[in-house]
Amino acid sequence: MTRLKDIAEYVGVSISTVSRVIQNDQTRNVNQETKAKIWEAVKELGYVPNKHARNLVANKQEKNSIRTMKIGWVANPKQAEMNPYFATIYTGIRDALAKNDYSLISITKDELENEALLLKTIHELGIEGLLLIDQIDCSIIEYIQQNIPVVGLDFFYTDKNIATVDYDREAAVTMVVKHLVDQGHKDIGFIGGGMNETLEGLYAEHRFKGFQHGMEDAGLTIRPEWIIHTKWKMENSYKKMGSLIKEEPLHLPTAMVCASDLMAIAAMRAARENELRIPDDIAFFGVDNIEMSKYSSPQLSTVEIPKYEMGRIAAKTIMEMVEGKINLPIKIIMPFELVLRESSNIKRT
């Protein structure tokens, strides 16, 4: 196993300097260039700082290896608590792990992106596997994978070399557009948010791509003024939908495809407050089928995503990877289906 001495010789510094950097000791300064070299050596040489972690790395499948039965969960705390989509996934994960005597440990993105905290989290917290929803840098994921199994949920990880559990967002929204076209709609708008860290990248987002494909397949024109970019905030959906109605009262879309139920519910409120009838004047279609969509007024048509099952299968996958039953980065794509309700139930002629 790699020792502090090996890192020190590799970088050309003293063992005490290596120790100070790894322990995040602030009592004596180490220049940034040296710190960077030490962390690079830690990753390249595969240094594991404590005895417990060494046992996990060297003896994962031996009966005498130490088991903590801890799985880490990396998600934005506000997102996981306040967004019903992620909350349901979390419940599926928690229930599946608890049934098999595993515990779920919450870890923040900041803890993984801080070099000192990264080592402490991965090697000293005792987690045996990691579930990712929040977007983590690829280089950090590569380092984590050298030590413990990783499973990603959500579209950040679909094209990465890690195990994932997800659904096909493009196909789901393409199906929504096709359904609306079959209902006689030709003037169709879109409400959604971006996918990068600033939430600006709308045109790269998978659900928007699905909207584009659906419109192209139907030979319909996408009107830029009917595209509402919300950055995934309900308030933005409400305000921008209201602005669209006021600015284009005589030329509005007859249907809005919404990338989430929360965006749709906020936009429907704006439509009702501006005395538009749903779905007579304008239809709305969401994605997620959160519990709230059954109680909106009118009830929201949406795409059923098996959120609880996604969480349960992600938990099952990480447990099987920890226990050595799965060794490949498998990709699991969950099914979806349209749920037709009052907000889009009128066929146009």
From TrEMBL:
Ranges where the HTH lacI-type domain occurs: 2-58
Top-level taxon of the source organism: Bacteria
Keyword Signal: no
A GO MF term: transcription cis-regulatory region binding
Keyword Protein biosynthesis listed: no
Leader sequence residues: none
InterPro entries: HTH_LacI, LacI/GalR-like_sensor, Lambda_DNA-bd_dom_sf, Peripla_BP_I
Keyword line: DNA-binding, Transcription, Transcription regulation
CDD domains assigned: HTH_LacI, PBP1_LacI_sugar_binding-like
Protein name as catalogued: LacI family transcriptional regulator
